[in-house]
Write a structure and sequence with these properties.
This protein is α+β, with helices and mostly antiparallel strands. The protein has helices at 41-49, 91-100, 108-121, 137-150, 167-184, 195-201, 219-224, 229-234, 324-327, and strands at 3-12, 15-25, 30-34, 56-61, 64-65, 76-79, 155-159, 187-192, 204-209, 212-217, 239-246, 249-252, 259-260, 267-273, 278-280, 288-298, 301-308, 314-320, 334-339, 341-346, 368-370. It has a 6-stranded mixed β-sheet with strand order 6-7-8-3-9-10, with helices on both faces. A 6-stranded antiparallel β-sheet has the order 13-12-11-14-20-21. The chain has a 5-stranded antiparallel β-sheet with strand order 15-19-16-17-18.
Length: 372
Amino acid sequence: MNIQIRGIHKVFANFPALDGVNLDIESGELIALLGPSGSGKTTLLRTIAGLEFPDEGAILFGGEDIANRPVRERGVGFVFQHYALFKHMTVAENIAFGLDVRKDRPSKEAIRKRVNELLELVQLSGLDKRYPTQLSGGQRQRVALARALAIEPKVLLLDEPFGALDAKVRKDLRRWLRELHDKTGYTTIFVTHDQEEALELADRVVVMNRGRIEQVGNNQQVYEQPATPFVFDFLGSVNILPGEVKNRELRFDGSDDVWDSESQETGLVDIYVRPHDLQIVDSQAPGLDATVTLVQRAGALIRISATLATSGERIELELSHLDTLARSRQPGDAIRVAPITFGLFPRAPHRRPTTLPDVVPNAPAENRERAR
């Protein structure tokens, strides 16, 4: 089932939860709606489901506008973050619930067959007589997913499906859900604020902010070619440093060294550099002088915090434990650093100091640079 979302607006008490959202989803795609709290991702999912109605706009399933239809007429399967299983029902009864309440209720034998098929599909065969309280969190989420699939939905919708689970179970279920999607082929949309989850699972990621879509793309596009400063900042740790572009030549503030720039940007810019895109270079190479303030070793990674000599700004580097120029560094050491790749955006009016949120990168080719 392909889905087209056209000009969707939704306002709650003068707050624009959705502000002119347009999105095309191909049949059989697995789409992630990703963004911070308040970005509109859950409202968009609920609007597609029919749990909310848009103030303006159209939602087309297979070319048919269903924006004003109730949820029961949309043929969607919905999986909630906290399972929403009926505690007084067994696993089999929970899965069969959607079939039992249908007007065109199948026969008992047909329901039993469908339940057994789904139990096998979600790898819970033999647990049909258990109750939700007798299951682990991961098992409960599988039951919730099986219940959503029982009605053979046109579209499968998942609202933070792994949010209530611990890290290891989340990772295992992510792989399992990807495999399940590839087997069933349902058009699937899930909401998450976990960047790793979105990038690992989805065919395409929809990055949202303040009720609008900032960027849509596959994991490589959104991570390596961020379209906006927000996407760059949200999708991974990042150093943000001031600079200037003249005649396609980039200079960091306080440095006389020049890097070639293929960007269309000119004048004052903010330079976005991931910690893993900074390297320690020889003292004679083009770069920025800095002083090491902190060294943290985490398995195969060495994380170095440093202060730039010219501006006093803090930067972060993530280097391999095999990097000979990084392995022996200690606080107080003088180093010279240079970018491998970077993104350029017009200088923000009130540029904030470098911060390093846990996220991942994206930027269009013209904003993603290869240092030369």
